[in-house]
Design a protein that fits this description.
382 residues; alpha/beta; Aspartate Aminotransferase, domain 2; Aspartate Aminotransferase, domain 1; three-stranded antiparallel β-sheet; 14% strand; globular; binds pyridoxal-5'-phosphate
Length: 382
């Protein structure tokens, strides 16, 4: 029986092997493992690609979010952490790291519901919450599945209410909003190089993109224990540097990012064509202005049949994943800890119960995508 994985990282490695092996060999030759030359080279390449002044490598996407928020707390409040009265609005339908980062930076996450079509934060509800007079300091939009949030509305709200914006771009490297790259629009953009991301390393890694010189300087201090001199520090810092070896590998893979994002879009176009109108599922909507880089191709399975369809596909050798089965506001860490909800969040709850992400391996063959489509049709529309 055919086996269609969500991703095939070995296949990707083989495709790029010469570049990756050469990059690793260079590290073996120079042996500069901590903040070696590959880190700076990658930071500069990504900054130029995104069109931002500064990129700072970090040890994960999660830490990148925390670093961005901590630097904003130091810069805007003149204190190490936010106060718990400081609220940061974000989506409940995201990976836990988004909300955790807000808690770890000392602030309180406020969860608002998603637009049920795109699964991204509903900017109208952000506006509604801001109208309640709460003490909001920032907004953290998450470009879920590779698709931009409505950044025009979010940036306009931020401007009106004097808020910062930290974009969580973990799932959307290379994606865009109108003429801009994601991560280059807000005060900071946070990226993940987790292996399964559009631009992934062979382990953990991340990056923060900023234009502001002072923020860049603070983040550079925070990744190295909080000081310019690591033996005499100014801030409560971390050991959160991007590893030289990961920077080398990500740097080699970076050459392929536009080609691979293009392949992802072609797979999505084939799914769209094959699945449109199939009974029992609906496709995720798109927002005009977004250059969607299809980190995940996610459908909604109607009538409570998601788990059944997932099992039927598994039996046919097709892997699928549920991103995410629990919205953040339902998790103990947020429920019993510090967090607020605006409204009912029913769309986030509904999505958690019916989303299903299909295989998007950029190198998967057209016939493999067709096989997935046929298996879905066989179950939904026998
Ligand atoms: C939306 C989102 N935010 C943050 C992260 C955290 O990134 P990392 O796993 O590199 O820490 C992820 C990755 O899983 C993510 O999908």
């Amino acid at each position: 029986m055919k086996q269609i994985p969500m991703l095939d990282l070995r296949l990707e490695y083989e495709y790029m092997q010469k570049d990756i092996d050469a990059a690793i060999q260079t590290c073996l030759d120079h042996q500069r493992w901590i903040l070696g030359p590959e880190v700076k080279v990658l930071e500069e390449k990504v900054a130029s690609y995104l069109g931002v002044k500064h990129c700072i490598g970090a040890c994960s996407g999660t830490e990148s979010l925390v670093l961005a928020l901590r630097a904003l707390a130091i810069k805007t409040k003149g204190q190490e952490f936010f106060d718990k009265e400081d609220e940061i609005i974000t989506t409940s339908f995201t990976f836990t790291a988004t909300g955790d980062a807000i808690l770890r930076a000392g602030a309180t996450p406020v969860f608002v519901d998603i637009d049920p079509s795109t699964c991204n934060i509903d900017a109208g509800l952000v506006e509604e919450y801001l109208g309640t007079g709460a003490k909001v300091v920032g907004i953290m939009p998450v470009h879920l599945y590779g698709q931009s949030c409505d950044m025009d509305r979010i940036m306009a709200l931020a401007k009106k209410h004097n808020l910062f914006v930290v974009e969580d771009v973990a799932q959307a490297f290379g994606g865009g909003w109108n003429s801009k790259k994601l991560g280059a629009i807000g005060d900071a953009g946070s990226f993940s190089f987790f292996p399964s991301k559009n631009l992934g390393g062979f382990g953990d890694g991340g990056m923060v993109a900023v234009n502001d010189e002072a923020l860049a300087e603070l983040i550079r201090m925070l990744i190295k224990h909080g000081g310019r001199d690591k033996y005499n520090v100014d801030h409560v810092g971390y050991n959160a540097r991007l590893d030289t070896l990961q920077a080398a590998i990500v740097g080699a893979k970076f050459t392929y990012i536009d080609e691979f994002n293009g392949k992802r879009k072609a797979i999505a176009a084939q799914y769209n064509e094959g699945l449109r109108g199939v009974k029992g599922i609906s496709l995720t909507g798109t927002i005009s202005g977004a250059d969607h880089v299809i980190h995940q191709y996610t459908v909604r399975v109607l009538d409570g049949k998601r788990d059944e369809l997932q099992k039927a596909l598994k039996d046919k050798g097709v892997s699928t994943m549920v991103y995410y089965p629990y919205p953040l506001h339902k998790m103990k860490v947020f429920r019993s800890g510090r967090s607020r909800m605006h409204g009912s969040l029913r769309h986030a709850e509904e999505a958690a119960g019916n989303v299903l992400s299909l295989p998007v391996e950029p190198l998967q063959k057209r016939e493999d995508t067709e096989y997935v489509i046929e298996c879905i049709k066989g179950y939904c529309d026998p």
